[in-house]
Recover the amino acids of this structure.
């Protein structure tokens, strides 16, 4: 079995996989027990599997493990913890910007990526950036408020 | 590397041997599941009889409290609301209350979670148990403190004199022991004027974990030795499996194929191997073309075989009154099949052992699942335990029950715990759907604008008692004697306004081409869409402002209140529709209103909307929504707002975009490109006003605010364009064609 070296949440890890096309999502969730990223569609359409690769948001269901090799991956767990949350996480908690919370991972990771590039986005820029992240519960207005709040933190 | 296990139905149903395999913990278990294991394993012999206080509550020696309920928090905030109601009665901080939900071994059966019953039934029953416990605790304290109960109170986790002084902690009074009390339906609840916890916007306990990846969803749950399963659905809904070519997955490591008649699954230690194998496995299925197709579905539905007609409202004689009316109108409205479209596809873990079976599921009805599965799989109820874990929002009966049946079939066949995770096309393609609805309305107003005749006819699939047919069970050829149903889909078909001669007739159809189930606010969204659109049509025909037309015919002060609030918030200007100043460049602008008394007996909701319609593209932009909502006592205003906002935005998506497409064989809208939902650029500003009625019982809020959404939108579009949209979804193509 081929092995792949990557950095996940700041730590070097070596992954064995029988299939170089295995999406990063399955590696993170099953080999590393990181359940922040979620399986939503496996098609890159919904955003619930979003992680940061070298600081930029990426759909982990669409990234083969071989392409993730040598890269720095950050998952929701690596962004912050309940005791030491990232400002985006703090803002989502303050705004209670979740219902079922299944999309929350993608929303927070996409927002982190946006704020890395653009610390003070307008509400319209936030909407456009999150256009490809789906929320089925209808928590959109709170998510928008949370991202705006994080940009002001 | 694959092996095929062909299992006969007979083998499957044969009772297993007497081998006892103990259940070992490990893998990923959420804290509350560990707590449940401890409770069950500690020999508390916890009762689950809903007449017993101990069924709902356990007071621990450290003064903390565990609440047990069959109602589950599917992201609705029920957990914190219920804790607030218990906290209020027991004088214990919310942080010291934990809630165990939907575990058939330890929670009383208060029914499944649906119909907005989480608070009004689930939490209200728990609160009554807590009020009973409160009485008992004060009684026990009175004995120990040697003071009359009238001089004592329960606060800050102790029984103490009202006037202050030495008290006794409730943990010391009863901690760890059973109260052995019947729930007293007359136990007095705390006076609303003295509420200190109810009515506060307390934060939900699950949100920090959801925002940091710590929350364990059923999709994240695992057991030692657990295998990953995938089920290969047939090429067409009624196809039979003719052959399987196992060598087609020879290259994928350690995969086993399970076949039972037309039920076909793969299991593997590695999840990706199961995904690959399910996709690569070559199969041949029989031809089947038994569906009418979604194009022209309305015609098909109208011609479908009728089981029976039912007049659910029958007042006066509309047929006689109609011809005498000064103005007569008629119109037809349609609503398509819609999917629950859960963002995370359904998932379940089953561990079928010879002596007991355990299922972990996000189903909204764990107790119903136990009854149903025990019957279908021939497992004694006491040997089948169903444990709820949070999942992706389900909004009713999505694929969760089917995924659980898949997991049971595979675990039983393989003899190991199996996790079945549906893929995207499974959820969109195979979840049971919200049924299509057709409504024909006729109405007449007299010269003074009074509604003198109203008739609604609906075409709806009939309800047959019993659980719905489970896909895997059906494919495996196991008899399941199922029913059919989608909830209380015929409510709100009559106007909530003063009207003489009203008749609502339901043509209950024998069958539905696609399998159906409850989908959030079952039936009511379409019924209110028709009734409130038609009310606007009558108002327009009478040349009267839509709000004035409604309030003149409404006597209920709570109804009048919500209409007043919602329309004030949007700055409603009274005038008849359509908007005389609607043209704004290439856009047409307008506003609309709708009102509902949910189920004609519950919440009062009024909603106003501002929209703009692009004449060139037919695209609808909803700019602003205001909503006034009265559900009696408000337990947690922030949780309530979150639910109402969700009702509004989800239903905007359902109205603008959502329609299940299918051909003669199967569903063809199987992903987010072919079944789009609301996206961020479309989201309007949403303002919600809560009307609190502390003296009244609380009602649920997971559904009511969905009901007026489509009507308010259609009414606003009419105001903007002068065109009436009567067929959901309001796609740009339909809008352009109508303009």
């Amino acid at each position: 079995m081929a092995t792949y070296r990557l950095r996940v949440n700041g730590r070097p890890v070596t992954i064995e996989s029988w299939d170089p096309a295995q999406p990063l999502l399955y590696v993170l969730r099953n080999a590393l027990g990181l359940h922040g990223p979620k399986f939503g569609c496996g098609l890159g359409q919904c955003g619930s599997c979003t992680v940061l690769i070298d600081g930029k948001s990426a759909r982990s269901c669409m990234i083969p493990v071989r392409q993730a090799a040598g890269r720095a991956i950050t998952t929701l767990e690596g962004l912050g913890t309940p005791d030491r949350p990232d400002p985006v996480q703090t803002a989502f908690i303050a705004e209670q910007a979740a219902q079922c919370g299944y999309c929350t991972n993608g929303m927070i990771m996409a927002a982190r990526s946006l704020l890395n590039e653009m610390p003070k986005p307008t509400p319209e820029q936030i909407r456009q950036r999150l256009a490809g992240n789906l929320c089925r519960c209808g928590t959109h207005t709170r998510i928008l408020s949370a991202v705006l709040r994080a940009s002001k933190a | 590397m694959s092996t095929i296990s062909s299992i006969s139905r007979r083998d499957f149903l044969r009772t297993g041997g007497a081998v006892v395999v103990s259940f070992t913990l490990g893998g990923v278990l959420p804290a509350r599941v560990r707590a449940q294991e401890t409770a069950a394993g500690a020999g508390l012999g916890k009762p689950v009889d809903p007449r017993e206080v101990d069924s709902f509550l356990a007071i621990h020696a450290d003064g903390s409290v565990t609440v047990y309920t069959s109602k589950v928090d599917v992201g609705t905030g029920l957990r914190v609301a219920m804790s607030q109601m218990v906290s209020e009665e027991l004088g214990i901080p919310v942080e010291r209350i934990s809630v165990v939900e939907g575990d058939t071994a330890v929670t009383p059966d208060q029914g499944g979670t649906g119909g907005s019953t989480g608070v009004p039934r689930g939490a209200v029953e728990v609160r009554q148990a807590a009020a009973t416990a409160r009485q008992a605790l004060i009684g026990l304290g009175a004995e120990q403190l040697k003071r009359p109960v009238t001089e004592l109170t329960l606060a800050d986790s102790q029984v103490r004199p009202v006037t202050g002084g030495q008290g006794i902690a409730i943990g010391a009074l009863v901690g760890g022991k059973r109260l052995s009390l019947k729930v007293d339906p007359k136990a007095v609840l705390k006076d609303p004027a003295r509420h200190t916890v109810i009515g506060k916007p307390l934060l939900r306990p699950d949100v920090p974990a959801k925002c940091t990846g710590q929350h364990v969803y059923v999709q994240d749950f695992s057991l030692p030795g657990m295998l990953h399963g995938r089920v290969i659905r047939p090429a067409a809904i009624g196809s039979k499996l003719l052959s399987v070519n196992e060598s087609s997955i020879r290259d994928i490591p350690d995969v086993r194929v399970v076949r039972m008649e037309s039920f076909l699954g793969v299991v593997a230690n590695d999840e990706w191997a199961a995904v690959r194998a399910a996709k690569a496995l070559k199969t041949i299925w029989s031809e089947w073309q038994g569906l009418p197709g979604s194009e022209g579905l309305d015609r098909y539905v109208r011609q479908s075989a009728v089981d029976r007609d039912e007049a659910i409202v029958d007042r006066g004689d509309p047929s006689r009154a109609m011809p005498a009316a000064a103005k007569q109108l008629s119109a037809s409205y349609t609503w398509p099949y819609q999917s629950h479209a859960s963002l995370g596809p359904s998932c379940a873990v089953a561990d079928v052992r010879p002596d007991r079976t355990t299922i972990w599921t996000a189903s909204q009805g764990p107790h119903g699942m136990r009854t149903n599965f025990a019957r279908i799989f021939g497992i004694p109820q006491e040997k089948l335990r169903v444990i709820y874990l949070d999942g992706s929002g389900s909004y009713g009966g999505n694929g969760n029950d089917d995924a659980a049946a898949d997991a049971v079939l595979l675990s039983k066949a393989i003899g190991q715990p199996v996790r079945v995770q549906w893929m995207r096309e499974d959820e969109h393609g195979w979840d049971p759907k919200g049924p299509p609805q057709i409504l024909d309305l006729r109405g007449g107003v007299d010269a003074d604008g009074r509604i003198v005749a109203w008739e609604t006819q609906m075409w709806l699939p009939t309800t047959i008692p019993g659980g719905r047919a489970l896909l895997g069970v059906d494919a495996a050829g196991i008899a399941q004697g199922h029913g059919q149903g989608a909830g209380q889909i015929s409510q709100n078909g009559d106007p909530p306004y003063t009207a003489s001669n009203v008749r609502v007739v339901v043509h209950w159809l024998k069958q539905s081409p696609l399998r159906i189930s409850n989908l959030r606010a079952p039936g009511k969204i379409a019924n209110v869409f028709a009734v409130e659109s038609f009310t606007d049509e009558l108002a327009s025909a009478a040349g009267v402002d839509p709000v004035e037309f409604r309030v003149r015919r409404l006597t209920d002060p709570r109804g009048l209140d919500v209409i007043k609030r919602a329309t004030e918030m949007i700055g409603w200007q009274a005038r008849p529709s359509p908007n005389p100043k609607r043209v704004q460049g290439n856009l047409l602008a307008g506003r609309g209103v709708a009102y509902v008394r949910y189920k004609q007996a519950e919440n009062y909701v009024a909603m106003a909307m501002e929209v703009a319609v692009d004449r060139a593209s037919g695209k609808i932009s909803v700019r602003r929504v205001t909503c006034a909502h009265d559900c009696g006592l408000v337990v947690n205003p922030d949780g309530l707002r979150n639910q109402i906002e969700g009702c509004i935005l989800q239903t905007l998506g359902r109205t603008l975009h959502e329609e299940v497409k299918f051909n003669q064989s199967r569903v063809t809208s199987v992903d987010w490109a072919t079944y789009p939902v609301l996206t961020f650029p479309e989201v309007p500003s949403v303002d919600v006003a809560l009307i609190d009625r502390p003296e009244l019982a609380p009602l649920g809020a997971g559904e009511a605010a969905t009901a007026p959404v489509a009507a308010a939108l259609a009414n606003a579009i009419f105001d903007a364009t002068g065109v009436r949209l009567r067929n959901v979804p309001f796609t740009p193509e339909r809008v352009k064609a109508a303009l």
